[in-house]
Amino acid sequence: VQLQASGGGLVQHGGSLRLSCDASGFTLDYYAVAWFRQAPGKEREFVTAISRSGGSTFYADSVKGRFAMSRDNAKNTVYLQMNSLKPEDTAVYYCAADRAKIYSAWTDPDYAYWGQGTLVTVSS
């Protein structure tokens, strides 16, 4: 069972990036998936999550209106489209999946599976 996050990089203030999280060894259809991030010297924080079907999403206030999470269950992949990036978005971004997660617990970091993280750096 593995989650592989990719797509990070260096981007200028106001730019865009799309992160991907590919699952292997299990079928992602049955899992709620979330993105968390951890900036240098700070605790890991919730960014966004998506339901198993992709019909529901939830965003942290800090990214609402700028980030969009989606999933392609046929490809066993979820995406995080990040627009209007700010220097404060600089962090390592992690995807996480859990089969038992319900909506009210999406922001809690106790997910069963975690990817290795991908670094996003936004220059000012």
In short:
The protein has 124 residues and is mainly β. The chain is 0% helix and 49% strand.
Core attributes:
single chain; 124 residues; mainly beta; 7-stranded mixed beta sheet; 4-stranded antiparallel beta sheet; 11 strands; 0% helix
Describe the secondary-structure layout:
Layout: E1 2-6, E2 9-12, E3 17-24, E4 32-38, E5 45-50, E6 57-59, E7 67-72, E8 77-82, E9 91-98, E10 113-114, E11 118-123
Parallel strand pairs: 2-11
Antiparallel strand pairs: 1-3, 3-8, 4-5, 4-9, 5-6, 7-8, 9-10, 9-11
Molecular structure report:
With 124 residues, the chain is an all-beta fold. The chain contains no helices and eleven strands. It has strands at 2-6, 9-12, 17-24, 32-38, 45-50, 57-59, 67-72, 77-82, 91-98, 113-114, 118-123. Strand 7 and strand 8 (77-82) form a beta hairpin. It is globular, with a radius of gyration of 13 Å. The N and C termini lie far apart (37 Å).
Largest sheet: 7 strands, mixed
Question: Beta-sheet strand percentage?
Answer: over 45%
Shape: globular
Low-confidence stretches are: none
Helix % is under 10%
The H-and-E topology, N to C, reads as EEEEEEEEEEE
Radius of gyration: 13 Å
Oligomerization: single chain
Distance between the termini: 37 Å
Count of helical regions: 0
Would you count the extended β strands for me? 11
Q: Structural class of the secondary structure composition?
A: mainly beta
If you average the pLDDT, what whole number results? 96
